[in-house]
Amino acid sequence: MASFPKIVDRGIHRLVTNTLSFGKLVPSNHDMALYRRPNETYKVVDLLERELSLDLDDDLIKKIDSIVSKPIVLRFSSDSNSAEDFFWGNKATNNLVLKKVLSALAFGELEFWERDLPQNSHEERLTGHILSKIFSSVRFCSESISDYSKEVFKNELPIEVSYHDLSKNNREKVTGSDFGVILHTNFPDQEESVMGVAIQAKKLKDNLSYLPIAQADAQLKFAGTDGAYCCFYDVADTGERLPPAVLRSEPIVGQCEKTKNDYKVQREMVSSSGLPLSLFLIWVLEGKCPSKKFDNIRQAANFMVTGEESVENYPGPSRVLTISIGGMSFRQELDDLKNLFTTRETGSPD
Hints:
Elements: H1 6-16, E1 33-35, H2 39-51, H3 58-68, E2 74-76, H4 83-88, H5 96-116, H6 123-153, E3 159-165, E4 179-185, E5 193-204, E6 208-212, H7 213-227, E7 228-234, E8 245-248, H8 249-255, E9 257-258, E10 262-266, H9 267-273, E11 275-276, H10 277-285, E12 292-294, H11 297-306, E13 319-325, E14 345-346
Parallel strand pairs: 4-13, 5-7
Antiparallel strand pairs: 1-2, 3-13, 3-14, 4-5, 5-12, 6-10, 7-8, 8-11, 9-10
Helix pairs in contact: 1-5, 2-3, 5-6, 5-10
């Protein structure tokens, strides 16, 4: 069997055995119900389920509600899984090649969590760091994943990754913390597919994050409800930090309290509804998370520049990460990912 880089295996082992906080964002199952719960109830349920491994039914949670306060929001399921079971079983993905890709993505995420997140830099720099770590990890693991794919599909599937900085060449950089991801798969047993998402990065400080209303509205116009997401970087001074957590922008706009200029995003919403960035990208590939669909990679690249509609003072993602799995057919109108944005800078993020 093709060997996977040992350093990645060691990192993933630390990640899934709950020595880090990745497990806090692993969903309990695919059919989680949405309840209305207060922050105090959330803390009690979280303590009982996670720390004491108790299985709480809805009746018991209602009793907790009656003791603590009026309900707000919490995701709850009676079926809880450890991060280890989630990864090593088939709950993250049952595609054996995508499991290896997930490991590479998660290792990059782990490196960011340990090395860059504690620096509490501004959002644009943190975005550069996380994309750099993912870019490097996927590229580092690409050869071993391709070798492994021969054992699964009897054909070697190329793994390619590229990065483009669209903020260069005098392109106005109004929303420099935005980034886009283009994902392409060409598996022997599936139809070739191309997906894309546009992501707004925000810092989560202690129990709150603020998403400017103007930015959220512009992003939804630009990327549409299926393509617009937010990624939260947990820079809290105390407690164990969450890994980068991704949520759809539409529920944030529809559910969060508004100030004059911002949507107030509560920590409990991020921790209960968010997905780790690595797992989110895999689930976009598998259609479990909504995304924009394209005929080819070139069309996806054009979307990252123009969006669904032009929005004043919103130029779209300033950085785009592209991952191709399985090799590009003639449909892609492209022979090398480096040529995807031919007039813009290519390489590893700053």
